[in-house]
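Continuing the series of single-chain predictions for the mutant panel. This is the parent chain; the variants come on the following pages.
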Amino acid sequence: MTDAKTMAYINMFAVLGTLENLCELDGKAKEIISGLKKPVNLAFEVKDGPVATFKFSAQGCVLEEGLKNYDIKIPVSSCEKFNRIIDGTVTPVPTIGLSKINFLLKTFTALTDRLTELMRPTEEAMKDEEFFVLSTRLTFYTIAVALSQIANHDEIGRHSASYIVDGDISFGIKGCDTATISANNHHLRTVKKAPENPRAIMSFADYKLASDLFNGKVNALEELCKGTVEIHGMASMIDNMNRLLDRVALYLA
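Parent structure:
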């Protein structure tokens, strides 16, 4: 079972939040934003749900929680409706910033279309090594952020988080991308960089293994026995991280 509110937080901070990484890592996304003459701040305000501002410039995208000096504001009446916006079945309507509608129709739509192309790739596209690596990296960051959203909002996820002690968990692909899952009083926060002093570590051997795990093609326990998934540090943190990963797979399926 999943719930709409948790899904809305995942869609805001994990899915749309990956626009930060897209604009940093993808040449096509960089080309799309390079045409921005002035920064544009786009805010989504979901009733009884997530609120965030996406700050776009020719240099990239930065996501901030809350309403922050926005140029365009899109209020959404419910978490269910916001999820339908992300699914593409509902069209978002701004109440502030209609003069910048061209940004929504062209730049923002082009970026989200590119993100969808990479996050929901065809088998043929994944045969290209460069595309495969980029898709896997973006998926990794989406999952890393989704872990914290599930821990904070999903009923089963909160139960798992209640057993996670304070401290940082290093979650990453060995020698490549790493994120910090930071626990404070059973509330989790994802930072898209490696921790300095983690209490626990979970890492995957390479992009291929990470991709196979994310797509359910291999069993994590078997890979752990092979040594291609490495875990170190406090066992209770790793155990409950695994439980959260199971919930991530359910929400992002």
